[in-house]
Write a structure and sequence with these properties.
Blueprint lengths: L2 H5 L1 H9 L3 E6 L9 H10 L13 E4 L9 H10 L8 E4 L3 H4 L11 H7 L8 H5 L12 E4 L3 E5 L19 H19 L4 E5 L20 H14 L5 E4 L5 E10 L2 E10 L16 E2 L2 E3 L15 E9 L2 E10 L2 E11 L2
């Protein structure tokens, strides 16, 4: 996809002329209207100036788990279109495990509801989108790359398992990993002949996470998927500047040190599964280091991740020389900054 495919030619031109691109990112919504999901949606809406595209977030990147439970096709009205009815930006998305799971009597085809709503053919609109006057982006698939003048944004589908993600295996095939490898090779070639764009990669299952499901602390790391990503990045000689995930229903921030083409690179891995479904307690052990990863700033002040508090969203801003990631806490109709992460593009 191009930026104009998401927000239209006029808005894309206005934004790209400023050499600044901003967007929202959050996952694990699926709760419905009159809930924390709508609180977060309304908070993001207040960031947007529809008369000045250049100074507003341009779109929302949904990090997966749009819909929870059986009968997903019929849940899109209450768990997606209704909570975002007043959010004026377009929404692009990757599926989470709950978007891809199947049921005994309904949802027999994995991802059907997600595809019907996010990947409808150009020239058509999902019936519920028409009801709520929400125009949907016609994504080319459940994994994709969005190309802009400043940024390559890659969204991956980490499949439907509850505990750990994968980008390919003997059951689902390796086509997604093959596709990722080709995109990374093209990015490497483009950097040799043109400007150095930022690279952000998102998938629902986090490559790094601290969680203990049996104790109510959410989800842990996806080690196999992380190795799949590492192998693809190493093969192309291109590593992301920022990795975004959901799945764990809290905010976590890890910093990974990697030697890339002879230089030390520090890559933030940020989880923002805080879009409204249910908050899980913050992980322990923040501030410790293991292997090449520092468990950094993953835990807000005590009590913030108790039920009904600790929701929020990311605002990502890309400029020619840096990325800025701001996590905003939302409590009812109140919002406040929690953490700002600045990533130099070198």
């Amino acid at each position: 996809m191009k930026l104009a495919d998401v927000i239209g030619k006029r808005a894309a031109s206005e934004i790209e002329a400023t050499h600044r691109l901003s967007f929202h990112a959050v996952g694990d919504t699926g709760k419905g209207a009159h809930s924390a999901q709508q609180d977060v949606a309304e908070a993001m809406t207040r960031d947007i100036n529809q008369n000045n595209h250049a100074k507003s977030p341009a779109f929302l990147f949904h990090l997966g788990d749009v819909i929870y439970g059986d009968g997903k096709e019929n849940l899109y009205d209450d768990e997606f279109y209704r909570p975002y009815a007043e959010y004026p930006n377009k929404i692009i998305a990757i599926p989470g495990n709950h978007d891809g799971d199947v049921g005994v009597t309904v949802d027999k085809e994995s991802l059907k509801a997600f595809r019907d709503n996010f990947c409808a053919p150009a020239g058509s609109e999902p019936p519920l989108a028409k009801t709520f006057s929400n125009e949907m982006v016609h994504q080319p698939g459940v994994y994709w790359m969005l190309e802009t003048k400043l940024l390559n944004l890659i969204g991956m589908y980490s499949n439907a398992a509850e505990d750990a993600g994968t980008l390919g295996d003997a059951n689902v095939g390796m086509h997604q990993l093959d596709w990722l490898g080709e995109r990374l090779k093209q990015i490497a070639a483009d950097r040799k002949s043109g400007p150095r764009k930022a690279l952000i990669v998102g998938m629902h299952h986090p490559p790094f996470a601290r969680g203990l499901s049996d104790k109510g602390y959410g989800h842990g790391s996806s080690d196999q998927m992380r190795k799949q990503l590492d192998d693809a990045f190493d093969a192309a000689g291109v590593w992301p500047d920022l990795v975004l995930s959901g799945h764990a229903h809290n905010y976590q921030h890890y910093v990974r040190g990697r030697n890339v083409n002879g230089a030390e690179k520090h890559i933030p891995y940020i989880i923002a599964g805080t879009g409204g479904f249910a908050i899980q307690p913050a992980p322990s052990g923040v501030g410790t280091t293991k292997d090449d990863t520092t468990y950094k700033n993953g835990s807000p002040p005590k009590g913030l991740f108790q039920p009904n508090t600790g929701y929020g969203y990311l605002t990502i801003t890309v400029r020619p020389k840096q990325i800025q990631a701001d996590f905003i806490i939302v409590q009812g109709n109140h919002r406040q900054p929690f953490e700002t992460t600045t990533i130099p593009l070198t």
